[in-house]
Amino acid sequence: MTGSPPQGGPHSGLAAVSTALLAMSRRLEVRDVLRTIVASARELLDAEYAALGVPDDHGGFAQFVVDGVSAEQWRSIGPLPRQHGILAAMLHEGGPERLADVRKDPRFEGWPEAHPEMSDFLGMPVRDGEETLGALFLANKRPGPDGGRGFTDEDQRLLSLLAQHAAIALTNARLYERSRELTIAEERSRLAHELHDAVSQKLFSLRLTAQAAAALVDRDPARAKDELHQVAVLAAEAADELRAAVTELRPAALDDDGLVATLRTHVQVLDRAHTARVTFASEGVRALPAAQEEAVLRVAQEALHNALRHSEGDRVEVTLARTSAGGAVLTVVDSGKGFDPRTVRRAGRHLGLVSMRDRAGGVGGRLAVHSAPGRGTTIEMEVPGG
């Protein structure tokens, strides 16, 4: 007797795996790959929750991505888990874990109060040869058409296949990020040498010419005037060299990936590096002229630096939205101690606000600062479209 395979059978499962693998292969950033792996695994095995932890060398996790948990709930859960219990078994013993009820396992050590309740559990290490890249696990499989619960042998087989390809995607993403870091470092080193050589020569000539002019002021005013004219020429040339160098220092990632992707990556790096939660969201933003994109990125970097260094807040939110006229609005909001902008101006401490306003004005935009003691700070920059 022939017919179509039942829904949820091996053929439909393999088709879902194929879809998941294609989704992973399209991602190049490590964080995006991790999210795609987790979302694909949860959808593939029809589970309520999925997570993937990438271990660090200190008994914790360098990255931990979840799917099925709201952002508010995730914040309420608290610090990232440590490498203990069943997670440690997957990382250090290198084998799968399938449990009917994770809470009854002798290795289970409980979870924070805000953590969702989990019962059936399926975990799989993500390995590249002998190296364990991470621990991927799912919990609470939804009931099937027959009412059955719990993960099956077929689920474990599919997750194993997904984990093997996830290791490839994650390794490729790491190599991509590393190669880009090296390229950027090499380019900046080259530009630094060029800047040093070109500007140093100009400044040396400028100094000698100024000294000659000073020596001639009294005994030969006409020649002194000529030398001062040459000083002005050399100063203009030095300024041109500096402007050219600054133009070349436009972030490589901005040229390659665009403003939204570059800003998202920058925020992700800061989120991992600081105790404060740093988030990014964008809405309908289209490509802007190069000068405007760089200005927005530089203002965002300065505002984030201020928020993380000075505000003492536990949350910084970055948003980038499209305006009705086709431009963009950048907003950086922190939950910190805030300040009185008038007091800062009187004290001569500008916290980079002058340079941020200059950058906004230089591309036809505007910058607004809203802050008060105890109420955090909001930096808003709007730039027109192309």
Structure explained in plain terms:
The protein is 52% helix and 19% strand. The protein has 386 residues and is of the alpha+beta class. The strands form 2 sheets. Strands 2-1-5-4-3 form a 5-stranded antiparallel sheet, with helices on both faces. Strands 6-7-8-10-9 form a 5-stranded mixed sheet, with helices on one face. The N and C termini lie far apart (64 Å).
Topology:
Layout: H1 10-25, H2 30-45, E1 47-55, E2 61-67, H3 71-77, H4 85-93, E3 97-99, E4 121-128, E5 131-141, H5 153-216, H6 221-248, H7 252-273, E6 277-283, H8 290-311, E7 315-322, E8 328-334, H9 341-346, H10 353-362, E9 366-371, E10 377-383
Parallel strand pairs: 6-7
Antiparallel strand pairs: 1-2, 1-5, 3-4, 4-5, 7-8, 8-10, 9-10
Helix pairs in contact: 1-2, 1-5, 2-5, 5-6, 7-8, 8-10
Which tags fit this structure?
disordered N terminus; five-stranded antiparallel beta sheet; single chain; alpha+beta; elongated; 52% helix; 386 residues; five-stranded mixed beta sheet; 10 strands
